[in-house]
Design goal:
The protein contains 11 helices and 7 strands. The chain is of the alpha+beta class and 353 residues long. It folds into 2 domains: 144 residues, no CATH class; 111 residues, 2-Layer Sandwich (Heat Shock Protein 90). The longest helix is centred in the middle third of the chain and has 75 residues. The two termini are 27 Å apart. The C terminus is likely disordered.
């Protein structure tokens, strides 16, 4: 790709130089076929010599030079290239000096000096453009590599965070089922059925980090069915979900984790149980999600390791940068966790930052 880009710019640059050179001389001396031939030969020689310059600049010893030495080396190399180009062109046309230019020789001090200065300047400009374009290509390549690396790191981080959730929930549920097997086989069977439905949901998402709210709510229904069996009537639930909001995309397992924390650290620890309320609605260009449960923040933080909320904060940062937020407050003897996400009905709503 770099070679093709160089060849294209090389041809374009020298053809443009040839055109400017021919028409400027034509305005002063007339556009004769001699001027056209000499300009064409100059362009061809310039192409070859500058291609040799490129090969020189690609030598390992040159590439390893410090910036100051590289500039000095490029300057000297351009002067040498200008001298060499002048000599090659003069040598090629010297046998035809009398015929084409009506002069016995081209090798006069004025002619040679003038052409060396002009062509050395051209080669200096060529070298400056070459390194500038090369630096730009390197910058674009580094930027693309950084974006690819950031994307890979983000993917790995998200997978690690999601995988942190699944064993956490599985451990709790298997313990509950194990305790029920001898006490109530039918309930244990029902719990296994709900658990299977939940993990079928997980498998069917194809490891996507975003799912629709409707899909997440279906999985939460299975989870709540498990919890209602375990808590034996001590759990009351209330859903206030706006119909339109169910098409919005949210991070997979995020809402389930909030519900799990609300029950485990808020309601399950109370003898009388408590109320779990889930709210979802659209607010302008944001999706408003809220999980409320009976309890106090102080008690919840004492009982919890904090893994759940930290996990969600990290995932929101990875997926949405600063476009999403999560807060925890206490209102009327209830712990209230509120999340605001950018509104999107597409699973491409993740941040690129």
């Amino acid at each position: 790709m770099m070679l093709r880009s160089f060849v294209f710019l090389q041809l374009l640059g020298w053809l443009l130089f040839g055109a400017i050179n021919f028409f400027s001389r034509a305005m002063l001396q007339g556009g004769t076929w001699v001027e056209f031939i000499s300009t064409s030969v100059l362009v061809i020689v310039g192409l070859l010599v500058s291609s040799g310059l490129r090969r020189f600049y690609h030598r390992p010893k040159v590439l390893k030079l410090p910036p100051g030495m590289l500039v000095l080396t490029a300057f000297c190399a351009s002067i040498v290239a200008g001298i060499f180009t002048t000599l090659v062109v003069f040598i090629l046309f010297e046998p035809f000096a009398q015929t084409l230019y009506n002069t016995p020789t081209l090798f006069t001090v004025m002619q040679v000096t003038s052409n060396i200065i002009n062509l050395s300047l051209v080669m200096i400009i060529w070298s400056a453009l070459y390194f500038a374009i090369k630096r730009y290509h390197k910058y674009e390549q580094m930027k693309a590599e950084k974006l690819a690396l950031d994307s890979t790191l983000k993917q790995v981080s998200l997978e690690a965070l999601i995988n942190q959730l699944n064993p956490h929930f599985m451990f709790n549920t298997i313990n509950n089922i194990r305790a029920l097997i001898l006490e109530d086989a039918n309930k244990a069977r029902d719990m296994l059925s709900h658990l299977a439905d939940m993990y079928r949901y997980t498998l069917n998402t194809d490891n996507s980090h975003l799912v629709t709210l409707a899909d997440e709510l279906t999985m939460i229904d299975d989870y709540l069915a498990l919890m209602e069996i375990q808590l034996e009537g001590r759990l009351q639930t209330e859903f206030d979900v706006e119909a339109a909001s169910q098409a919005a995309f949210i991070p997979r397992m995020m809402l389930q984790l909030l519900v799990e924390n609300a029950i485990k650290y808020g309601i399950a620890n109370k003898k009388q149980g408590g109320q779990l309320t889930l709210v979802a609605k659209r607010q302008s260009e944001a999706l408003f999600l809220q999980v409320r449960n009976t309890g106090k923040i102080e008690n919840s933080l004492q009982d919890s390791t904090g893994m759940g909320l930290n996990n969600i904060q990290q995932r929101l940062a990875l997926l949405y940068a600063d476009k999403a937020s999560i807060t925890m407050t206490e209102q009327d003897a209830q712990v209230v966790v509120t999340i605001l996400l950018p509104w999107s009905t597409s699973d491409d709503s993740r941040s690129d930052s």
